[in-house]
Automatic annotation (TrEMBL):
Source taxon at top rank: Bacteria
Record domain HAMP: where: 303-355
Name of protein: diguanylate cyclase
GO molecular function: diguanylate cyclase activity
Annotated membrane topology: Multi-pass membrane protein
Domain GGDEF: 405-538
Primary location: membrane
PROSITE patterns with a match to the protein in the record: GGDEF (PS50887), HAMP (PS50885)
Record-linked Gene3D superfamilies: 3.30.70.270, 6.10.340.10
Annotated coiled-coil segments of the chain: none
One GO-annotated biological process of the protein: signal transduction
Catalytic activity: 2 GTP = 3',3'-c-di-GMP + 2 diphosphate
InterPro entries registered for this protein in UniProt: dCache_1 (IPR033479), Diguanylate_Cyclase (IPR050469), GGDEF_dom (IPR000160), HAMP_dom (IPR003660), Nucleotide_cyclase (IPR029787), Rev_trsase/Diguanyl_cyclase (IPR043128)
């Protein structure tokens, strides 16, 4: 969805930007056309009014009353001056009545003093002191259009020099025009694009507008100074600002030198951009809805797929580490739910298998222990067998090599066992062998070892024991077997033992050597008459004890 949404949204935004640029360009073109048209019309009107003023000046210049009025100079002629002024005013009033858009006709002398006017208080038109020189160079003097509070309208004045017959400047005729005359010409009625035109004076007052109602009937409206300056500094450049009725407008300025006015063409912002903005907002809304849907789907997928998968992954990691006590909650019916269910079944099975393996392992361990015991044990006596004896003796020899603490070895043989076997039978013989083994086991320490060497022969290893100490143990064993109960015969048997004892010595470099020496000791005990202990003391000192 994102793959289609992102390019679509990008294209949409690009398209809206292009549309906005096109609208801006079209509006700018239309507003420029409107302002240029108004500028041309104002220029034409001004030129027409100058011609009118010149005509008036020409016709008035020929008037005898005017010439006489302007020619009165001396103090003595003051009385005559007043009469001439009245006559001149009367004359100007009669001319004024024939003109439609003229507000004032005022005659000033060469020093700018008002000589006569058609109105009692003429619109104050200030002429500079050097106006006669200016007039002789440039002819007519144009005053900048401005808003007149007195007339509640925009006014424009032209000062036309009045010349004597010999071309001396006698004074000037100042004609003040009502600019409302051009209001209807500010816009081309037939071809003008939508929008209005404002005519501003130098002070920023709105003098005229193409729209009825701006400004009010009896007052001007000041245009925002900052906005006006910005527009004047960038003539023909599109700006967005607050219009005269404080509404948002789009407009641009046309600055005219003659007459000195600023023309602003403007158009209501809403009328231009409302449709575009509605479409843009609709598009943004749709994109927003799409993003919300995508986000919702992503959230749902994350909730329904990613989160359960993460749980499965962490559960699997626990299993990998050996923890099988894993159970996942499952509330979904979809594929993820099925996967979770199978996962739980799998861990159940693993737990069962683990229990079975543990049980089998324990049984196996038990059997191994038994086998190990059997492998080192003599089945008749329960003592160590010959193989194990060899291992123990090798170990003891190695230990002796390291710590030099001697161990004692006893070789024990039942006297006349063959006769006992022959007379009482093998079963009784076995019982005697087992009984002797039991007595031996009971007579030695936990750290000592007893093994059946073969037939009726036994080997006892007394760790870290000297011959002297071993002799005591041997005697104790010999005494123990004096009376052996034979259960198969249900009677007591008197058994005697011959015992040979040696102590490990540095010369015992092998088992054979060691066993050979103890075997010799046993032989000595047998040879000496049996039922006795024969000790081989270290350094071949033989101590023999004989007991009856
Ligand atoms: N009942 C029984 N007899 C055995 C067993 N192993 C060996 N024998 C017998 O033990 C006897 C061993 O006799 P010897 O030690 O050689 O001779 P002896 O009669 O004891 O004479 P001395 O040792 O010189 O006193 C033999 O007759 C063997 O057949 C066994 O496991 N059970």
């Amino acid at each position: 969805m994102l793959a289609t949404l992102i390019p679509s949204a990008g294209l949409g935004i690009l398209s809206f930007q292009q549309n906005e640029t096109m609208i801006n360009e079209n509006v700018t073109r239309e507003l420029r056309a409107m302002s240029n048209y108004a500028g041309r019309e104002a220029d034409l009107w001004v030129k027409e009014q100058i011609l009118v003023a010149r005509d008036l000046s020409t016709s008035i210049s020929t008037s005898k009353i005017l010439i006489e009025g302007l020619s009165i100079e001396s103090q003595t002629q003051k009385t005559e001056l007043a009469a001439q002024q009245r006559a001149l005013e009367f004359y100007l009033k009669s001319v004024y009545r024939r003109l439609e858009n003229v507000l004032e006709l005022t005659v000033v002398d060469v020093e700018g003093e008002i000589i006569a006017s058609n109105v009692a208080s003429p619109f104050s038109v200030k002429l500079s002191q050097s106006w006669p020189e200016d007039a002789s160079i440039q002819g007519d003097i144009l005053n900048s259009p401005q808003w007149s509070k007195d007339y509640a309208t925009a006014v424009f004045s032209v000062s036309v020099p009045i010349l004597s017959i010999d071309d001396y400047i006698l004074g000037a005729l100042i004609v003040t025009f009502d600019m409302r005359d051009i209001q209807s010409s500010l816009k081309d009625k037939a071809k003008s694009p939508p929008g209005e035109v404002l005519l501003l004076d130098q002070a920023g007052n709105i003098m005229l507008t193409s729209a009825i109602g701006i400004p009010g009937a009896n007052k001007s409206v000041s245009f925002d100074t900052d906005t006006m300056k910005r527009l004047q500094d960038n003539p023909g450049k599109y700006e967005i600002f607050l219009g005269p009725l404080q509404e948002k407008v789009v407009g641009l300025a046309y600055v005219s030198e003659k007459p000195s006015v600023t023309i602003i063409a403007l158009r209501n912002y809403e009328s231009i951009y409302s449709t575009w903005e509605q479409q843009r907002d609709l598009f943004a809304g749709l994109v927003g809805i799409m993003i919300f849907i995508v986000a919702a789907i992503a959230f749902r997928m994350s909730h329904a797929i990613v989160a359960p998968l993460q749980k499965l992954i962490s559960a699997t990691e626990r299993i990998v580490k050996g923890d099988l006590n894993v159970e996942l909650n499952n509330s979904q019916d979809d594929e993820i739910g099925q996967l979770t269910q199978r996962f739980n079944q799998m861990t159940d099975k693993l737990r069962q298998n683990q229990l079975e393996i543990n049980a089998a392992s324990a049984a196996m361990q038990k059997k191994n222990q038994l086998l190990e015991t059997l492998s080192v044990t003599d089945s008749l006596t329960g003592l160590y067998n010959r193989n194990k004896l060899n291992v123990i003796l090798s170990d003891q020899l190695a230990r002796y090599g390291r710590n030099k603490r001697p161990f004692a070895v006893l070789m024990i043989d039942v006297d006349y066992f063959k006769s006992l076997n022959d007379n009482l039978g093998h079963v009784a013989g076995d019982e005697v062998i087992a009984a002797v083994a039991k007595k031996i086991s009971q007579s030695i320490r936990n750290v000592d070892f007893a093994a059946r060497y073969g037939g009726d022969e036994f080997i006892v290893i007394l760790t870290e024991t000297s011959v002297n100490e071993a002799e005591k143990t041997a005697e104790r064993i010999r005494m123990q077997v004096a009376d052996v109960h034979c259960s198969s015969l249900n009677k007591m048997l008197s058994v005697t033992l011959s015992i040979g004892i040696i102590q490990s010595e540095p010369e015992d470099i092998s088992l054979t050597m060691l066993l050979s020496r103890v075997d010799s000791a046993l032989y000595q005990a047998k040879h000496a008459g049996r039922n006795q202990v024969y000790c081989v003391t270290p350094k071949s000192r033989v101590k023999q004890q004989q007991h009856s």
